[in-house]
């Protein structure tokens, strides 16, 4: 996936939470735009968010991001 494609997801207004899936099968939910930071080659994802502040982060290569899709808000309820 390209940085530009992920940037488009992150800049949607109103923001729509989305999930990225990696080539390994791991998935990461981006529930707030400030919980991810994008570079040309990587996305840094805040994890363990509490009160708007992540407790840790994960850096993943964009080369291994295979999909981005909206998080189904009805399934989370």
Query: Major sheet: order of its strands?
Result: 2-1-6
Please work out how many helical segments DSSP would assign.
2
Which architecture per CATH? Roll
CATH class, please?
Answer: Mainly Beta
Summarize the helix and strand pattern as letters: HEEEEEEH
Task: Estimate what percentage of residues fall within beta strands.
Answer: 35-45%
Number of domains: 1
Give the total of beta strands: 6
- The residue fraction in helices comes out at 10-25%
Low-confidence regions: none
Give the overall shape, derived from the CA principal axes: globular
What's the gyration radius in Å? 12 Å
Distance between the termini: 29 Å
Decide which structural class fits the backbone: alpha+beta
What does it look like?
This protein has 77 residues and is of the alpha+beta class. The chain has one domain (3-70): Roll (SH3 type barrels), CATH 2.30.30. The protein is built from two helices and six strands; from the N terminus they run αββββββα. The chain has helices at 3-10, 73-76; strands at residues 18-22, 27-30, 36-38, 42-47, 56-61, 65-70. The chain has a three-stranded antiparallel sheet, with no helix packed on it. It has a three-stranded antiparallel sheet with strand order 3-4-5, with helices on one face.
